[in-house]
Specification:
This protein is of the alpha/beta class. The protein has three domains: 345 residues, ANL, N-terminal domain (Rossmann fold); 75 residues, Luciferase, Domain 3 (Luciferase, domain 3, Roll); 99 residues, GMP Synthetase, Chain A, domain 3 (2-Layer Sandwich), CATH 3.30.300. It is 28% helix and 23% strand. The chain has a nine-stranded mixed beta sheet with strand order 2-1-10-9-11-12-13-14-15, sandwiched between helices. A seven-stranded mixed beta sheet has the order 6-5-3-4-7-8-18, with helices on both faces. Strands 16, 17, 19, 20 and 21 form a five-stranded antiparallel beta sheet that branches. Helix 2 packs across helix 3, helix 2 packs across helix 4 and helix 3 packs across helix 4. The radius of gyration is 23 Å and the shape is globular. It starts with 20 loop residues before the first helix and ends in a 13-residue tail after the last helix. Bound molecules: 5'-O-[(S)-ethoxy(hydroxy)phosphoryl]adenosine. The site of 5'-O-[(S)-ethoxy(hydroxy)phosphoryl]adenosine (WTA) has 22 residues, from helix 9, strand 13, strand 20 and strand 21.
Length: 575
């Protein structure tokens, strides 16, 4: 039963796009909604056409698509028509450089307008867009550009410096375009019109590298047809109406910044606010006030930091434009939902999804009561299962592997050149006549009202400030340092950031385990791998716990760190 902690809906400022969750879910088929998107003949569809061109050719052409707020208070705005023409010019420039369908074009940019225009441009010509977070260092960049065999990289002269040591080992990378050097001039000479590629619904649109427990990051590829799901989830979960000024605080180096800052948002005709600067509570509130933001999508770490900044700060700003606020990326503490209801007059709505799912799978919908702490309910058409390790269905209330029937348009198409790894995401469920389901790597349970509750990761993937980090990459980066023999990396629970990265390091013989060396190692990873994926804590140890086959048992490192029972050690080598 719904208890008294539930937040019931009262006084929604606007009729939600999804008024009746239960009825819509019951009768849901994609066929009912696909005509809300523009298709070319023979089931062809282009995601960028649906995000920008459709609007630029219609009544929304002079409507603002993007409000851009720079780091130092400078600002610009672009209509759909301006986005259309600018992206066409970039597309024509890329074509003139020989980019054709299926070629990978990567973007390594801070949140500048060119990032958004280039992303759209790449999809418009049927090439595959890859984005890389601006905190990445040489190793992370090399891994992605090498594995994807990217042909063109769009970056700035400042960021391009991080490639200086690895560029020579990237034979497929034909050109590096610098947005601050000659780019604007080249673009300005290009025609503003373009024949958008009539891509097949299954053609590759964009790819994003993401981390698992083992190995290098994998290139998750999404297809053009995903726009159907990107659009519908933006409409029903984020509740985007064309009149909305919507602010997604994610970076397009991550999936949220692509799907819900660019594609889904614009397919709904809403205006996107882009803030190029860093997190700062006062600046964030001033942006909401300045642009009269109506819908906001952010992450629990940021919300915890806003809560820590206090209520007096909130009182200095007029935030009454807000009407719907949403969260993603890590568990949203129930206290933050009740806190936001108190201070903003609106509860945060948690949403759950992954890079691989390409769109929100579970959500707290505007028209459905919220149970604070729950991820909410499945999106219409989505069929979740809680499955045991040996392929049986678990009952209501039992925790197990969160799995989904792979039936929605934005599920990853493939992992770039990793077919075996791709298959490892799926398992057969005995109680469902051996049906194949997609495994998220997360553990969850369902309650008696059909709400899902996140319990934790089933693997060693770390979420730090909502950003996904694979322990293997950090371990590899540490081992590259001359003082290190071995390293084991875990996520250590942290009240503010969800987790912080902690490394257990075995030093070479004769090397002194000093505090200075800890700092040096942290800095080393920060510089070589990524600015966000370095160990905040390092502990030197003599030996790592390993299985008899030599795999590091991070689970044991974690249990020791937290003072928990170590559990089953039957596969452990003598320790
Ligand atoms: C975690 C981000 C709890 C989860 C869009 C998932 C969450 C991983 C939630 C994907 C949530 C995401 N509650 N955990 N609402 N949303 N996660 O690929 O572990 O960066 O598997 O995609 O984040 O992270 P990714």
């Amino acid at each position: 039963m719904l208890d008294n902690k539930v937040i019931h809906k009262e006084n929604l400022k606007m009729a939600p796009n999804l008024e009746d969750y239960t009825a819509t879910s019951k009768y849901f088929t994609y066929d009912r909604y696909i005509d809300e998107l523009v298709w070319f003949d023979h089931d062809k569809i282009n995601a960028a056409y649906n995000a920008i061109t459709k609007n630029a050719l219609g009544d929304r052409k002079n409507k603002i698509a993007m409000y851009w707020e720079g780091e130092n208070g400078e600002s610009r705005k672009y209509t759909f028509l301006e986005m259309e023409e600018a992206s066409n010019q970039i597309a024509n420039y890329l074509k003139s450089l020989g980019v054709s369908k299926g070629d990978r074009v990567f973007i390594f940019l801070p949140r500048v307008p060119e990032l958004y225009m280039a992303f759209i441009a790449i999809l418009k010509i049927g090439a595959v867009a890859g984005t890389m977070f601006s905190a990445f260092g040489p190793q992370a960049l090399y891994d992605r550009l090498d594995q994807s065999q990217a042909k063109i990289l769009i970056t700035t002269s400042e960021l391009a410096k991080r490639l200086s040591t690895v560029k020579k080992n990237l034979p497929h990378l034909k050109r590096i375009l610098l947005t601050d050097k000659g780019f604007a001039h080249e673009i300005s000479m290009q025609p503003k019109s373009l024949h958008v590629a009539q891509t097949n619904e299954d053609d590759d649109a964009y790819m994003l590298y993401t981390s698992g427990t083992t190995g290098k990051p994998k290139g998750v590829v999404h297809r053009h047809k995903a726009i159907v799901y990107e659009y519908l989830t933006s409409k029903w979960v984020l509740d985007l109406h064309e009149s909305d000024v919507y602010w997604c605080t994610a970076d397009p180096g991550w999936v949220t910044g692509i799907v819900y800052e660019i594609l889904g948002t614009w397919a709904c005709g809403a205006a996107t606010v882009v803030h190029a600067g860093r997190f700062d509570p006062s600046v964030w509130y001033s942006i909401i006030q300045k642009y009269e933001v109506t819908v906001w999508y952010t992450a629990p770490t940021a919300i915890r930091m806003l809560a820590a900044a206090g209520e007096d700060l909130i009182k200095k700003y007029n935030l009454t434009s807000l009407r719907h606020i949403t969260s993603v990326g890590e568990p949203l503490n129930p206290e933050l939902v009740t806190w936001s209801k108190k201070v903003y007059g609106l509860p945060f709505h948690d949403t759950y999804w992954q890079t691989e799912t390409g769109g929100i799978l579970m959500a707290n919908f505007p028209s459905v009561p919220i149970k604070p702490g729950s991820m909410g309910k499945p999106f219409p058409g989505i069929i979740p299962h809680i499955v045991s390790d040996d392929g049986h269905l678990l009952k209501t209330g039992q925790t197990g592997n969160l799995a989904f029937e792979p039936n929605w348009p934005s599920i990853m198409k493939k992992l770039w050149r990793r077919p075996v790894k791709y298959e490892s995401y799926f398992m057969r469920v005995k109680d469902l006549a051996n049906k194949r389901v997609y495994l998220t790597g997360d553990q969850a349970y369902k309650d008696e009202d059909g709400y899902y509750w996140f319990v934790g990761r089933a693997d060693d993937v770390i979420k730090t400030s909502g950003e996904r980090v694979g322990p293997f990459e950090v371990e590899s980066a540490l081992i590259a340092h001359h003082a290190v023999v071995e390293a084991g990396v875990i996520g250590k629970p942290d009240a503010l950031r969800g987790s912080i990265i902690k490394a257990f390091v075995v030093l070479k013989e004769g090397i002194k385990p000093t505090e200075a060396l800890k700092n040096e190692l942290s800095e080393y990873v920060k510089k070589n791998l990524a600015g966000h994926a370095y160990p905040k804590e390092i502990e030197f140890i003599d030996k790592l716990p390993k299985t008899r086959s030599g795999k590091i048992m991070r689970r044991i490192l974690k249990a020791k760190e937290l003072g928990l029972p170590i559990g089953d050690t039957s596969t452990l080598e003598e320790y």
